[in-house]
Amino acid sequence: MSNVTRFHMFQVAINPKVDSEITTFKDMLDNMPEITQVMAKYGDKFDLLGKTTKRGRIYTGTFCLVQSNGLPPRAKLGELPHDLELEEDEGLGHYTSFFYDPANNVILVQYNRNGITANGIAAYFKANFKDDIRKVEFRVLINPYDITKLQEMSEIKKVELSVAGITRGGILANDGVKRSFSELNDITDKTNATGMNLTLSVGKAGGGIRRSVISQLFRSLINADTHGNIVKMEITGREEDEDALKVIDFLNNKVIIDVPLIRTRHLNEAAIRKIITDAISQYDLIKDEIAISYRVKGAEE
């Protein structure tokens, strides 16, 4: 029986400290400390498994999160549950693989609900290079086709945003989102709302919504949404000399690579390697298109 694992693609942004010799993400991967700082997610510790490896020009690595809290029991049909009888430092292992292409300055992170998020990986590298780096940020990439569609729009007529599960501002309180949303946060908090629908629109008169502001806002929101609370994110506009309106769905057009895999009783080292290898093969099919749409100044040529 087969299922699928997904890799989400991000641009890497690094803000090095003055006079630091570590200025790129590639530098970080080439100079990983011998002893890394172990991080935690909800009290469960995680770390990089060994060091990153290099396949040609592609860097690869895997994180392991050890779930030591809230563990399920050992079970057998017809019997009462039993303790797993694990050692103090043992738990359930949740693995999150990634690979990085310095030519396009993009990182692809495997989605694992029980593993590490992309934001968690960025925080890990920042913590392990705190003397050299001020900021490490992974920015979600939108399908290049939709970026082209947005650029071809002569007018943006409507913007729609829906967020579910807001708690004290939720994702809109993230530092990466524009301060102009602080008033919306206050409204949701004071009214005890658990969701929000926002529509920005212009009438039939000439002019439209500012493209650059909306594009940046949407990207910031996507980066902030690590728990899938955004349920709708669309831009409606028209191209030059065309009456028909076209819709760009930002939420469902992130650059994602699906890798089929075989469900096994236990995930082993060979299975992890195959997942990464298959994901890189899928990436090779689109990397030239990514290079054209997301050329980054300073990226390795």
Overall description:
The chain is of the alpha+beta class and 301 residues long. The chain is 24% helix and 33% strand. It contains seven helices and 13 strands. Strands 1, 2, 3, 4, 5, 6, 7, 8 and 13 form a nine-stranded antiparallel beta sheet that branches. Strand 6 and strand 7 (106-110) form a beta hairpin.
List the defining traits of the structure above:
single chain; 301 residues; alpha+beta; 9-stranded antiparallel sheet; 4-stranded antiparallel sheet; 7 helices; 24% helix; disordered C terminus
Helix/strand structural class: alpha+beta
How many DSSP helices?
7
Strand content: 25-35%
Largest sheet: 9 strands, antiparallel
What's the overall average pLDDT, rounded? 80
Please tally the β strands and state the result.
13
User: How would you describe the shape?
Assistant: globular
| Terminal residue distance | 41 Å
Classify the helix fraction into a percent range. Answer: 10-25%
- The low-confidence runs, each spanning 5 or more residues with pLDDT under 50, are 296-301
Give me the Rg, rounded: 22 Å
